Amino acid sequence: MSNCFILLAAGKGKRFKSNKPKQFINYINKPLFKHSLDKAIKSKLFKLIIIVSNIPIKNIKDKSIKVINGGKERYQSSQKALDFIKNKKFKNVFIHDAARPNFSIKLLKKLKFNLKNNKAVVPYIKTKNSVKYKSNYNIKNLNRDSLLFTQTPQCFDFKSLYDLSKINKKSITDEASLFVDNNEKIKFIKGEENNFKITIRSDLNKMKIKTFYGIGFDIHRLIKNKKLYLGGVRIPFHSGLQGHSDGDVIIHSIIDGLLGAMKKKDIGTLYPSNKMKFKNIRSPNMLSPILKILDGERYYLNNVDINLICEKPKVSKYREKIISSLSNLLNVSKNQINLKGKTVEKLGLIGKEKAIACEAIVSLNYYV
Ligand code: ZN
């Protein structure tokens, strides 16, 4: 695997009108540049990922990711990254603009596949508009079928690109331009309509969204000599929740809510209680595979509302801790989670502190 991914995130985004460079503003559920970064990681195609940025990026622990400073113009940033990897013996290099967060991993793989027999592979889309070309006082009609609108990621044989970039003196808007200017062959492949560039603020809302809701309910008996976990937090209490797992009713309800919203059956189907391998499983470990499905299928969590139904422990005492824990586990901010406590007037099993129940409703956005 000798591929390097260069993520250009050093632009100023003059048309975007924001104090923060647009690559770092929140898009859907995370900073804009992270969408491309996460997909590059997930594709498992790259030995090294370089982020070119003029502001520091914190919390990058992965050793296969390097952050370097960019130049004033896009082509200078790209050149800096190419110089950085010059002696690292990469056969192929992919270059991508962080302002295009919506490409698919499938596109990355298609690019890589086509590079086998080519030195440059570039995705394009066509336009549906009629096109006129204006120069001085002349206007000409152009045949739109002959126009290619190029996108990134673009991928290249490293040496071919490096040699062309070294002789380039002018500002270019993509690396394909180098090949065009030097009459070098490019393999064009079909790009993606969703892979648009975020340039102005309204582009942030261009993706089509569908919203789905899911409801979850759970109840477990309280038994002596077991630790009590609620929302992943260990709560000091006289009893714990009976069950095959740690009996965390909050997490179990959320899992069922998430599965419900995604139309993927229920927790019992995924974790049958007759399977030994799930015995004594901690509930956060039951949640993480569900979040992987969520992420892989373009669902994003909007909010969760939880009713914890019990006489004791008092929810108000642990609310902050539980919300913090859930925000970590679900990888969303605390203000997307609400936790309510509900007593049952000392009625029934729950009223006699022999059981704890929980219900949760979740809302997911699905980006079409
Ligand atoms: Zn349960």
Description:
The chain is of the alpha/beta class. The chain has two domains: 3-205, Spore Coat Polysaccharide Biosynthesis Protein SpsA, Chain A, CATH 3.90.550; 209-367, 2-Layer Sandwich (60s Ribosomal Protein L30, Chain: A). The protein is 27% helix and 28% strand. A hairpin with a 2-residue loop joins strand 14 and strand 15. Helix 6 (249-261) runs parallel beside helix 8 (283-296). The radius of gyration is 26 Å and the shape is elongated. The mean pLDDT is 93. Bound molecules: zinc ion.
pLDDT < 50 runs, ≥5 residues: none
Total count of domains: 2
How many runs of DSSP E, i.e. beta strands?
A: 19
N-to-C CA distance: 32 Å
The main pleated sheet reads as: 8 strands, mixed
Q: Write the H/E string, N to C.
A: EEEHEEHEHEEEEEHHEEEEEHHHEHEHE
- At CATH level 3, the topology of the largest domain is Spore Coat Polysaccharide Biosynthesis Protein SpsA, Chain A
For the record, the CATH class of the largest domain is Alpha Beta
